[in-house]
Write a structure and sequence with these properties.
mainly beta, seven-stranded mixed sheet, four-stranded antiparallel sheet, single chain
């Protein structure tokens, strides 16, 4: 059984930066894609960024130019660098690893952007 654990969240002022990490309890191979999602209080979970097994990236319009998703390795498969954070970025952030045939999700890490 694979467990994913996000880390790197916390409280930051507007304009600040955070780097989120996603660690796997066991090595994950045959990864098709990875992504980051977030869920703010009272709202649905939304897609933030994704990266394919060959490194192609896509971003939600709201974070494009501010966030960068990157690949790691089998034990730490994906990262999210967040710059110029805004209050509307406040949410619980989740990493996702897509394999065949299973998808894996982390438990989430809280990001709060406030002055």
């Amino acid at each position: 059984q694979v467990q994913l654990v996000e880390s790197g969240g916390g409280l930051v002022q507007p304009g600040g930066s955070l780097r989120l990490s996603c660690a796997a309890s066991v090595s994950i191979f045959n990864i098709n894609a990875m992504g980051w999602y977030r869920q703010a209080p009272g709202k649905q979970r939304e897609w933030v960024a994704s990266i394919t097994d060959i490194g192609l990236t896509n971003y939600a319009d709201d974070v494009k130019g501010r966030f960068t998703i990157s690949r790691g390795n089998a034990k730490n498969p994906v990262y999210l660098q967040m710059n110029n954070l805004k209050p509307e970025d406040t949410a619980v952030y989740y990493c996702k690893v897509v394999t065949r045939p299973y998808d894996y999700w982390g438990q989430g890490t809280q990001v709060t952007v406030s002055s």
